[in-house]
Specification:
By secondary structure, this protein is α/β, with parallel strands linked by helices. The chain is 40% helix and 21% strand.
């Protein structure tokens, strides 16, 4: 494989990290005590010319873990009824098992050594995912323990907006406010935004990096 082709491999774009876009809906702000209610996951791939694209999405409604807190103001905001039997909710452990299996396959396909969470205001989502992993005791956590790619920060730099809906619109992407605060919709839009920001940097000539060390 030529050096030019190597540059366009996903494993070489983020130092061996495989980016996984995550969005969670919760029953509060405390990852240790408040229930995790939804997880949306979107995986990514890179084409032969080095353009980052969405691959596929997973979405799970989550059963509140035993002893978790449900904050009324959080439920009023995201309009989720945690105990509605029609949600088809599964346990945190089941959801993480399916998510990890998908990520593992995508990492192998892209020869990446570790996954990294991409999210909008990523510390929030990262904290809830890590807390769920710890609670369930599930093994082989693919995610970096503290590093993330935060699209709120990236959007502030590139398009001058930090709110997801406004950042998407500023980046030229459609955003339906009526569908917002669904983990599936928000992870898909965050994935589109992340891809646009990464690809825009490439279109502007910022990637691949050209300097004295690789000429």
């Amino acid at each position: 494989m030529s050096t030019n082709q190597e540059i366009h491999l996903l494993k070489n774009r983020f130092r061996g990290f495989y980016p996984v876009v995550i969005d969670v809906e919760t029953a509060g702000f405390n990852a240790q005590t408040d229930a995790l209610l939804e997880i949306g996951v979107t995986t990514l791939n890179m084409d032969e010319k080095g353009w980052l694209k969405k691959e596929s999405s997973l979405h799970f409604h989550i059963i509140p873990f035993h002893g978790s807190t449900i904050q009324p103001e959080a439920i009023a905001f995201n309009r989720i009824d945690p105990f509605n039997p029609l949600r088809g909710a599964i346990s945190e452990q089941e959801a993480l098992f399916f998510i990890f299996e998908k990520i593992k396959k995508s990492m192998q396909n892209n020869n990446c050594s570790k996954s990294i969470i991409v999210a909008h205001n990523a510390t929030f989502d990262h904290n809830f995912i890590m807390a769920a992993i710890k609670r369930t005791g599930i093994q082989n956590n693919p995610f970096h323990p503290f590093a993330t790619f935060d699209t709120a920060a990236l959007s502030g730099l590139v398009v001058g907006q930090t709110v997801l809906a406004k950042a998407c619109k500023a980046a030229g992407l459609f955003f339906d406010n009526k569908q917002a605060h669904s983990a599936l919709y928000d992870t898909q839009k965050t994935a589109e935004l992340f891809c646009e920001l990464v690809n825009r940097w490439k279109r502007l000539g910022g990637w691949p990096v050209h300097n004295e060390n690789n000429t």
